[in-house]
């Protein structure tokens, strides 16, 4: 193998640049030519491919976003689009592709591998919802962004004796809500993996009030419902006035944490090694501090489990 390429796809996450840098530098260190594909799979179909050198990835390890840009592409789900993508790669004599993204991006990588083009998946998403890795690139940074926002909101919640609902990202995965809720001492944490009764939330708020607590933080994952809807229902049915804060895309930006930079560098470098070993269709991850690779199809068929112990603990500490 002489030439490989790298792309970022789906929602961006802090640390993607560090992963790109690792793929490029480890590739060049190993004697390969490395190419960047711009704008994810959409760009790949359109042949937006450029050679990257050591300097192309200089001064990016600390930057959020992705220098290769990202996109979500419906078009790429079609077989003919996947063949077109392979044609574009072969035009440049590229023989392997590293895809950095979430599960949608992994699906694309699996499809290309199935069609004869070896791809490796790197878990780049703030959601931390990819099986086969304890952490995804960007989760730690997003978590810290959320925690520092909640800390600030707590200041004003305390001053005004208010209940706040803070909506965080996570359509299907509650990791951001769970970890940030635990780390910021939230009174209630609502995640899509659990059924939550509004009565329970209200009882908890009332119990707090009874023991003299006048402010509360509810961390709500967007996949449960919207903060607006929850606020309306608390007000209408229980006469509980709240304030809401929807953190939104602020969670996806910012300089990656040290943890994310190291994780991205380790996973990116390993992706190159696995391609050089002649293996495609693998998903790289970190499990129990070790860098591992698994069959990408198997990873896609598994649901990343919610850390039960962390959920139980969050319940025990927020009584
Ligand atoms: O997959 C990452 C993620 O940030 C989710 O948590 C969120 O629901 C979604 O992307 C938002 O996507 P978009 O930026 O396309 O609106």
Automatic annotation (TrEMBL):
Pathway: Carbohydrate degradation; glycolysis; D-glyceraldehyde 3-phosphate and glycerone phosphate from D-glucose: step 3/4
Keyword match Metal-binding: yes
Top-level division of the source organism's lineage: Bacteria
Cofactor list: Mg(2+)
Description of how activity is regulated: Allosterically activated by ADP and other diphosphonucleosides, and allosterically inhibited by phosphoenolpyruvate.
Keywords attached to this entry: Allosteric enzyme, ATP-binding, Cytoplasm, Glycolysis, Kinase, Magnesium, Metal-binding, Nucleotide-binding, Transferase
One BP term from GO: fructose 1,6-bisphosphate metabolic process
Keyword NAD: no
Catalytic activity entry: beta-D-fructose 6-phosphate + ATP = beta-D-fructose 1,6-bisphosphate + ADP + H(+)
Residues involved in substrate binding: 125-127, 162, 169-171, 222, 243, 249-252
InterPro entries in the record: ATP_PFK, ATP_PFK_prok-type, PFKA_ATP_prok, Phosphofructokinase_CS, Phosphofructokinase_dom, PKF_sf
Binding site for Mg(2+): 103
GO cellular component terms, A-Z: 6-phosphofructokinase complex
Residues holding ADP: 21-25, 154, 185-187, 211, 213-215
Pfam families, alphabetized: PFK
Family the UniProt entry places it in: Belongs to the phosphofructokinase type A (PFKA) family. ATP-dependent PFK group I subfamily. Prokaryotic clade 'B1' sub-subfamily.
Role summary: Catalyzes the phosphorylation of D-fructose 6-phosphate to fructose 1,6-bisphosphate by ATP, the first committing step of glycolysis.
Record-linked HAMAP family: Phosphofructokinase_I_B1
Protein name per the record: ATP-dependent 6-phosphofructokinase
Gene source species: Metabacillus sediminilitoris
Gene: pfkA
């Amino acid at each position: 193998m002489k030439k490989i390429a790298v792309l970022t796809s789906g929602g961006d996450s802090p640390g993607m640049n560090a992963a790109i840098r690792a793929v490029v530098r480890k590739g060049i260190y190993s004697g390969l030519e490395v190419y960047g594909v711009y704008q994810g799979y959409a760009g790949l179909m359109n042949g937006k491919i450029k050679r990257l050198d050591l300097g192309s990835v200089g001064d990016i390890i600390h930057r959020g976003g992705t220098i290769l840009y990202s996109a979500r592409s419906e078009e790429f789900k079609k077989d003919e689009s996947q063949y077109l993508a392979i044609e574009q790669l072969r035009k440049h004599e590229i023989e392997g592709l590293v895809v950095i993204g979430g599960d949608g991006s992994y699906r694309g990588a699996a499809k290309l591998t199935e069609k004869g083009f070896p791809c490796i998946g790197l878990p780049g998403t703030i959601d931390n919802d990819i099986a086969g890795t304890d952490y995804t690139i960007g989760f730690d940074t997003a978590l810290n962004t959320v925690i520092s926002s909640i800390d600030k909101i707590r200041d004003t919640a305390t001053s005004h004796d208010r209940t706040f609902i803070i909506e965080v990202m996570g359509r299907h995965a509650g990791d951001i809500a769970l970890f940030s809720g635990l780390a910021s001492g939230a009174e209630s944490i609502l995640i899509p993996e659990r059924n939550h009764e509004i009565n329970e939330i209200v009882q908890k708020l009332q119990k707090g009030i009874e023991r003299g607590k006048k402010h509360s933080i509810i961390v709500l994952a967007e996949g449960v419902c919207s903060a607006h809807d929850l606020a309306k229902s608390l007000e209408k049915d229980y006469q509980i006035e709240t304030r809401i804060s929807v953190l939104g895309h602020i969670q996806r930006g910012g300089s990656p944490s040290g943890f994310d930079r190291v994780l991205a560098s380790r996973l990116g470098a390993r992706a190159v090694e696995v391609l050089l070993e002649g293996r495609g269709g693998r998903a790289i991850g970190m499990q129990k501090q070790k860098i591992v690779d698994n069959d990408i199809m198997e990873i896609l068929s598994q649901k990343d489990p919610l850390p039960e112990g962390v959920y139980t603990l969050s319940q025990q500490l927020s009584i």
